[in-house]
Amino acid sequence: MLYSKVTPEQKRIRLRELLTDGSIHQFPGTFNPLSARLIEEKGFSGVYISGAVLANDLGLPDIGLTTLTEVATRAGQIARMTDLPALVDADTGFGEPMNAARTVQELENAGLAGCHIEDQINPKRCGHLDGKGVVDVDVATRRIRAAADARRDPNFLIMARTDVRAADGIRAAQDRARALVDAGADAIFPEAMKDLAEFAAIREAVDVPILANMTEFGKSRLFTVRELESVGVNMVIYPVTLLRMAMGAAERALETIRESGTQEASVPAMLTRARLYELVDYEGYNQFDTGVFNFSVPTVFSQPV
Hints:
The protein has helices at 8-19, 33-41, 51-57, 68-79, 97-110, 137-150, 164-168, 170-182, 196-205, 225-230, 241-260, 273-279, 282-292; strands spanning 25-28, 47-49, 86-89, 114-118, 157-162, 187-190, 211-213, 235-238. By secondary structure, it is an alpha/beta fold. The longest helix has 20 residues, at 241-260. The two termini are 43 Å apart.
């Protein structure tokens, strides 16, 4: 009932344990607090909060238009609804290295387990689009160093994302990954890898956990979790999958209503009222309310003396 009873500090410890236990872990992308609860119920290791999803939910493209306040607020709302650790996309840190430092502290305050900060220029682009630009290695490492130095909880995970593969190739991505680790990154997110061999190349370059982004309609084939595990990937995200599924279903339902004048044909595909109430723990709230409301409201008031 209400929010998770697992503290942010405990979730951060759990995330670090997951990324170093020798297994691969799946973090589906959540698009709201309720979907985070569903991810937990289905037995996944953690939740991922995509910058693209946060932007799209506001009706915006993923080009760096969201603010730190918007991201921290929504990510905090999501993180507090689940016992699982939540990793959030912090784009480029929302500005210069000092902004990246503040970003980390605001995300700590919001209850996140970790974040990733990328090396794109501002304004950024979706990682699987063409035409991306990256900052030089000095700027990229200063962002990560500032973020790592700013955290107050040493278990808050600082992941560095690099988009340099698209601009300069896999060898440049290996070099950039090493530099980011030297600057303080706890993990590496190599974006838009072409194939499994490129993930293996990043694995060879660094000895920290690495993440694979399995987004639909992107540069990478949708590798299975076992394929990714075979090349040393520690964590795989599915950032926009649930949002795309939900919006696709919503579009089809609206078309049905428009064409048929009723939603009846769409009802079998809906989450039932009972299932929705189960997810939000309706009965738990009802029992709590009944337990605390144990007094009668007087109908006659005495005169003041």
